Amino acid sequence: MTDDDEAAFDEFLAARSTSLLRTAILVCGATRHDAEDLVQHALEKVYRNWPRLRRDNPEAYARKVVVNAAISRSRRRRVIKEIVFARPPDTPADSPDLDLRDTLIGELRRLPPRMRAVLVLRYWEDQSEQATAALLGCSVGTVKSQAARGLARIRENLDVAREVTR
Fold this sequence. Notes:
It is a single chain. With 166 residues, the chain is an all-alpha fold. The chain is built from eight helices and no strands. The protein has helices at residues 3-28, 32-48, 50-53, 58-76, 98-110, 113-124, 129-136, 140-165. Helix 1 crosses helix 6 and helix 2 packs across helix 4 (58-76).
């Protein structure tokens, strides 16, 4: 790798590593440590392929590696009943509703890994349906149906919780 490639990779790393970590935390539904492992794995792959990826879209490649690794990891861990979920990195906001955020993260944790990945990519990461489908290796229709089902489950669970507290 040339010095120019090294400098460009360092810039990419500084600019996108926090975003990749946030995605990993939200998608994998695990501890910050596990999410950091996923990001490290993705960045290793990006680095190895940097000369080829540099002019393409290295962030999309890294995000796809993170999401696929998170889904694979959760499949291996299906025997675990409860997944500990770390809080996403704090970002400045005018007046964040921490209770709502915690509730939504709790509801995301209850969803199957692929459905959770669709919702995180679509709504937290603001990816298009096409980009989400490409990252997950599925059709746009699958993204639409998984998003609709996931949102419906979250709404249903929130409605049930409201009824219980009344």
